[in-house]
Structures are given as C-alpha cells and as structure tokens.
Amino acid sequence: MTTILARFQLDYGDFTLDVDLKLPGTGITVLFGHSGSGKTTLLRCIAGLQHAPQGKLEINGTVWQDSERKLFLPTHKRPLGYVFQEANLFPHLTVQDNLHYGLKRIKQNSGTVKLEHAVELLGIGHLMERMPERLSGGERQRVAIARALALNPEILLMDEPLASLDFKRKQEILPFLSRLHQQLDIPVLYVTHSQQEVAQLADTLVILEDGRALASGPLSETQSRLDVPLAQEREAATVWQATIAEHETDYHLTRVAFTGGSLSLPAVDAAIGTALRVQIYARDVSIALEAPTATSILNVLPATITGIADSRDGQSVIRLQVGDQALLAHITRKSALMLDLQIGMAVYVQIKGISTLTHQ
Amino acid sequence: MLSPADMATLWLTFKVAGIATLLMLLFGTPLAWWLARTHSAWKGVINAVVALPLVLPPTVLGFYLLVLMGPTGIIGKFTSWLGLGTLPFTFPGLIVASVLYSLPFVVQPLQASFSAIGEQPLEAAATLRASPWDTFFSVVVPLAKPGFLTASILGFTHTVGEFGVVLMVGGNIPDKTRVVSVQIYNHVEALEYTEAHWLAGVLLLFSFSVLLVLYTVLKTQPVAHPLK
C-alpha cells in the first residue's frame, strides 16, 4: 500500500504550520479544522502552490519536496489533481476546453478514458458547449472535479469543494463525491470544516488546530479521541461502517451488521450486502450497568469503557469500545458518578437514534 | 488638399507610431507583468519612473534625451562605440524617444489587466500541468486581451500626437523626423492656415474614431490616471 509522508514547517509570523503526517495511500483522508487551523495551507504545500521552507513530501515513493536536498518539484510537474474552493474554471474557455486543458498537457492516452468516465460520473455531459459564467455553482464545481480527474492523477487534492455552495447544491454534489469514493483507486486529501462532510466521506481523519495536527488516524478512532475538542462538541458523533444484513419489512426496519454486532435502523432502501455508513451522536447514547430487559430502545449493545473525560456544563464524555468500533457517549457528570463508571468496566449502551449516511 | 510633403509627414508619423507601439508591447509586457506581480521594494520606484512622461513637460523629457543621446551623453557614447553614431535628429532616435514618451500608456493598461486576473487562474493552470510560459500564453494573454488592445491603441495614438519630444530630439528634418504635429506647427508659422486645417482635421478625425472604437466597441473604461 502506498503512503503519503508529509512534513512541513513554515512561519508567517502570525501563523505557523508545523506538521509531520503519515497518511494512507487509499481512501479519503479529511483534513479537518476551523478557519485558520492551517488545513488549506497544508494542502497548498502538498500541491506546491505554497513553498514551505522546511519540508519533506513523499507520495507513492516519489519525493516531491525535500528541503534538505534543496528539492522542490514545481506544481506543474506534480502528477496531482486539485479542486479549488471556488471552482476556478478558466472563464475564457468552454466547459469542453476547460476539461481538455490539462488533458492536452499530459503525455498519456489513458486520460481520454478517464475524462469520459469522470464526465459520466459527474453528470456534466450536457454542459460541454457552455461557458463557465453560464453554469450554476454546483455545475461549475462538478466540471472542476472532472477536469482534475481527467489528468489521471496519482493523488486528488480538494480544498473545501462544497464550502461556497448553498445547502441544496451541497446535497447535489455529495452523492457524486460518495460515488467517487467508491470508484477511485487513488488517495484523496479533502479539506473541510464541515462535520457532515467528515461523516459522509472520511476514511481517515486529520484534525488540525493552530497549524498543528492534533490527531490523525482512522475515522471513528480519531472522532472519539477524548484529548481532541471534537469529542466534547454538542454535535460529537462517531461514524461506523456497516453492511445491510436483513430487511424487517413488517416493522419498516433494516438490520445492519458491523464487526462485533448489529444495529436496527429505519428501513433503508438498498440491497442486502450494501455497505453504508451510520452516524451515532454522542448525545443519543446512554449507559446502563446491566442489560436493560424492559426498554423501548432497540439498539442495546455490550460495550467496554475505554476513556472518561469531564466536559463543560456538568457533562462527561465516555469513550466505549463496541466490537471493533469506538463509540462516544455524552452523559451528565452526576450519572457518571452515581454509576461509578471506571475505565475497563463492562457496560451496556443504549442507542436512541442512528442516522444513515449516503450508502456507497 | 494634402500636399505630397504633408502626406510624407503623415506616413512617417504612422511608421514611427507603429514601430514604437510594437517595441512598447515587447518591452512593456514583461515590465507590466513584473509590476503586477512583484512585492519588491523597487515596485514603487519603477512605477514612478514609468509614469514620469505623464506629468513631465515633453520638452523636459526631450531635453534629457537630447543630452543623454548626444556625443557626450552616456547613451551617445555607447551608440558611437557600437559604430552607430549618435541618435538625435535620426529616425531611430525618434523611435527611442517615442517609446519612452508613450510607455506609460502601454504599461498601465497591461498592468491593470494583469492585476485583475489575480492568482487563481494561474494556480489552476499550474495544477493542470501548464508551465509558467505556457500559462502566460494560454491563460494570461487571452484573459488580458482587452488590456492589450487598449494598450496598443493608446500607445499608438499617443505617439501620433507627440510634439515636444520630437522637436527636442528629432528636429524638423523632412522624411526623417518631420511628423504631422511638427508639420502643422510649420504651416501655422508660415501662416498657411488652410494646410494646417487639413492636417489638423485628419488628426482630429483619426483620434476621435480610434477612441470611439475603444470606448464603444471594446467598452474600455476611460483611462483616468490618478496623476492626470
């Protein structure tokens, strides 16, 4: 498996970036953080659009930057695809010419096939003759994604591709991104400040703050780290990968399996065996010391406490392990004390609500 | 009507303006590109130097050029060393003077349109495998087309209208340096008002039509330099 090694140090006086990351060479890695966290700067350093004076970058075993050896590959020589926050199409070229701009400049024939595939995947075939100014924001961004994919890049870099779109347009593009996720065999680095996009797209999550990486690792593991502010937030949640195991049509329910158990969800319209992501908010999880026998809650699972942290306003954050999956629970500090919760304790979790994210 | 001598001055004027405009585009484009993108401390100084002809009386510019290009001036010594003689009162001297005199009219519109393009299209091109040269010709030039048109038209018409600089460095030599504006002056001096009317009318009509095209067909914003 290929990996991405990225180490950068730069100092702008009021902002410093100092990261040393090892990222997987497959799937979508989300660089998550608030504005000013350095996530876009990091992506631009990887693309070579910004030159970090101290840095080493290795993609697929090829060195793109090594400040010790004074090596810095200029952006146009890096085999990457880049999607900007504002689609950044060339205003003087039609959609067709925008799509072919990069294609004409690579010396391989596989591009045309890649382009046809991308055009179909992103549903932009009918826009070819249009000028960018006559496209909607969502269409523009889809063209930009296809333009990057047509290059048959070794890595796809996306800088908040949905941030400039309204809610409706976001919902229009997210399914395309999920489909990409499934069909793309190259690593994707995806910058966002949206937890929704993290939940829907991330396989690996890197959390950035003040130019440093607070945490980096598989999604649910990183989401549930108690030393990272994310777990404390009101919207804190964990995302699990699961597959559809059974439809209980009488009850309008679907049973999904994950490594270490199964969950009941409101009916999902997809075939058995389909992979999907489910999101469980920490505020929807409660804890019992014994298996509750009489409860209306369907999803009760045995779990082990792996971490406890105090949160604001009399809340406690409990990290649990359910089978192979990490889970977060927000409960009151009073409950935590009354139940005398300790790390290592075997308990039961009751999950009141589960949301299904786009199936893949 | 226009006499053969008047026609000759017209032809010479357009020749000077044409050659000067080509040279200004050649030197002005990289200069404007540099000015539009640099963060160098020299930017302000170079901007001021380029804009000088806008505010200097043309006779002042002409006077310094005459001195510099003359036998004892630094440019004059250099051209003599090259075996070219000195430039004042020659056609090449007139070209050099015209280029310096009209340069701001070429550099400023170009600089403005380069700045307006911004960083984004250049970055997009770089991520699409285009080298900086490639980007300049495939992205910058098409996007800055109105700037190039405005620069060419203003550079050309402004050169056509020069008088003071020509008189200082070019004098009044028929077929070599006698341009229309000088010829009109000659006619007026000789009280040949009819002839002066003809030539002046031709220039007026020419300048007006060009500006009309500039502001209506090309929809260029009038160039209002902050200093002028």
From TrEMBL, chain B:
Presence of keyword Metal-binding: no
CDD domains: TM_PBP2 (cd06261)
Keyword Cell division: no
Coiled coil: none
ABC transmembrane type-1 domain segment(s): 10-216
Alphabetically ordered keywords of this record: Cell inner membrane, Cell membrane, Membrane, Molybdenum, Transmembrane, Transmembrane helix, Transport
UniProt topology in membrane: Multi-pass membrane protein
Gene Ontology MF, one: molybdate ion transmembrane transporter activity
Matches recorded under Pfam families: BPD_transp_1
One Gene Ontology term, aspect cellular component: plasma membrane
NCBIfam families referenced in this protein's UniProt entry, alphabetically: modB_ABC
Stored PANTHER family: MOLYBDENUM TRANSPORT SYSTEM PERMEASE (PTHR30183:SF8), MOLYBDENUM TRANSPORT SYSTEM PERMEASE PROTEIN MODB (PTHR30183)
Homology family: Belongs to the binding-protein-dependent transport system permease family. CysTW subfamily.
Protein name: Molybdenum transport system permease
Species for this entry: Candidatus Methylobacter titanis
Lineage of producing organism: Bacteria, Pseudomonadati, Pseudomonadota, Gammaproteobacteria, Methylococcales
Gene: modB
